[in-house]
Amino acid sequence: MKNNVKILVVGSGGREHAIAKALLQSPHVAAVFCAPGNVGMQNDGIQTVDICELAFDALKGFVIENEIEWTFVGPENALVAGIVDSFQADGLKILGPNKRAAQLEGSKDYAMRFMEKYQVPTAKFATYQDSKSAIAGLEQFGEPVVIKADGLAAGKGVVIAQTKQEACLEIKLMFKKGQKQIVLEEFLDGDEYSLFVLTNQKNWRVLPLAQDHKRAFDNDQGPNTGGMGAYSPVPQLLESDYQKMLTQVVKPTIAGLNKGKYQYCGIIYIGLILTKQGPKVIEYNVRLGDPETQVILPRISNDFFTLLDTCVNELELPQIKESSQAVLGVVLAANGYPKEPIKNQVLPVLNKTDVIDIDYANVKSHDEAFMGNGGRLLTVISQGDNLIQAQKQAYQYLNEFDFDGCFYRKDIGFKATNYKF
Ligand code: AMP
Ligand code: GLY
User: d(Cα 174, Cα 131) in Å, to the nearest integer?
Assistant: First the structure.
C-alpha cells in the first residue's frame, strides 16, 4: 500500500473540511491540501492553497509541483466546467465525473431525460424556453407546482409555487433574470432522502443514508437553501422502503450510466422523495452533499483514503463498513441567507469536545476568532450512540453561545427523534 501520500481536495466549504479531515486520518496520508479551502480548516492540519476551484491550470501546476497522488473534487461548479477532463488530458489522477456526466447536475432537463430514457422513477415534467409557453404549460400540473431554473443554482433555483398566480410570477421572474430554460415539475409529496453511491467502472457501493433539511427555517418553512442540517442514519425509514430505493432507483441509475457509457468515476448523489407510489428522484448531483458529508463520513469506518484510492484506480470497491454511531449536524448560517446573507459578524470561539466537531465554511480570520463571510458559516457535528443523544448534545452545545448576525434551525433531526429545541 502507498504511504506518505499527498492529496488535493478542491473546494472551500464544510463538505471539503469533512473530506480533508477524513483523508488526514488515514495512516497512508502525509498531507492534505485544500484549494481554495477556508481558514477554519487550518485548525485541523489541512493546508489551504490560494487557488480558486475553477483555475484548472493553476491547480494542475500545484499538483505536479507537489507530487499530489490524486485530487478529489468537492463542488459541482468545477465538475460541470470540466475539471476532470482537464486533469485527465494531462494524465493527472482525479476523482469525480467528467463534464458529460456532470450534466446530470448541470442541467435539470438533461437529468430528467436521462431518467426517462433509463426508466428511473421521477416526477412528471416539461421544459420551456419562454415564459408564455411555460405559463400555458401550468395547466398540466395543478398546484403546488415545482419550477426549476435549468442550471446550477446551489439549491436556490427551485421554487415551489402554491398557487397559479405565484407560479406565473416566478416563471416571469426567472426568464427576466436571464434564464434560458426552465423545468416545470409535478410536486412530489413525501419525505426527502439523500442517497450517495460511490462508483467506478468496476462496481458501486452505497454510502450511509442521510436526511437533509433544505428549507431555511424550522418546520420546513422559508426558502430552499443548500441545506441547513443533516443526520445519519435515518432510523424511521422502513427497511422495505430502503430496499425499494436500491432496486427501483439506484440500480437503473447505475445501469443507465453504464449503458450510456458515461465512464462515471466518483459519487452520484440521488435526491429522492418517498411518495405513496414509492421512491422518486427529484435530482441528481454529481458530488457529495453539504451538509450530508459532514454526517456520513464519520459513520464510514473504512480507511477513507484507501476507499477513494480504490475508486480512482478503477479497482473493485470494498464493502462499506457503516458504524453504529449516529451523527447529526446543525448548520450556522448568516442572517439573510439564502437571499441576502450579511457578512462580517464575529463568531464566538468554538472549541471541539469529545462528541462535538466543527466543519467550517464561509469564514475569515478576525483576531483570535473567525468572522462570517456570507452564506453558510459552519456546521456543528455531534456524534452519539443514537440520534436523540446526538441531537441533544448538538443543541446543548449551541445553546452555550450567543450568535450575533447568524441563525440555525432548532429542529434538525426531529423527524427521527420527535424533539425540537
Ligand atoms: P433540487 O435543486 O432539484 O434538489 O430542489 C431543491 C429542493 O426542492 C429539493 O430538495 C426538494 O425539497 C424540493 N423539490 C424539488 N423538486 C421537487 C418535486 N418535484 N416535488 C417536491 N419537492 C421538490
Ligand atoms: N445538501 C444538498 C446539497 O448538497 O445539494
Answer: 9
- Which ligand 1 atom sits nearest the alpha carbon of residue 280? 19
Å from CA of 45 to ligand 2 middle: 26
Nearest CA to ligand 2 atom 4: 289
For ligand 2, say whether the CB of 105 is within 6 Å of any of its atoms.
no
Residues 362-408 have pLDDT tens digits of: 999 988 899 999 999 999 999 999 999 999 999 999 999 999 999 99
Q: Which ligand is nearest to the CA of 122?
A: 1
pTM (predicted TM-score): 0.95
Domain count, the chain: 4
**Counting atoms of ligand 2 from 1, which one is nearest the CA of 212?**
1
Left (φ > 0), alpha (ψ -120 to 50) or beta: where does 220 sit? left
Instruction: Please return the burial class of 147, using the count of CB atoms within 10 Å of its CB with bins 0-12, 13-18 and 19+.
Output: buried
Q: What is the pLDDT of residues 201-260, one digit of tens each?
A: 999 999 999 999 999 999 999 988 999 999 999 999 999 999 999 999 999 999 999 999
Task: Give per-residue pLDDT as tens, 117-150.
Answer: 999 999 999 999 999 999 999 999 999 999 998 8
pLDDT at 157 over 80: no
**What one-letter code names the amino acid at 162?**
Q
Indicate if the pLDDT at residue 155 is higher than 90. no
- In a shared domain, residues 216 and 290: yes
Asked if 407 and 341 count as a contact pair (C-beta separation under 8 A), the reply is no
Quote the CA–CA distance of 167 and 161 in Å, as a whole number.
Answer: 5
Cβ(289) – ligand 2 distance below 6 Å: yes
The reply to whether ligand 2 has any atom less than 6 angstroms from the CB of 16 is: no
Give the CATH number for residue 299. Answer: 3.30.470.20
| Ligand 2 center from residue 329 Cα (angstroms) | 13
| Dist. CA 371–CA 347, nearest whole Å | 6
Look at residue 56 and tell me if it is in a domain.
yes
Q: Is 13 in the pocket of ligand 2 (CB under 6 A)?
A: no
In which domain, by residue range, is 128 found? 124-186
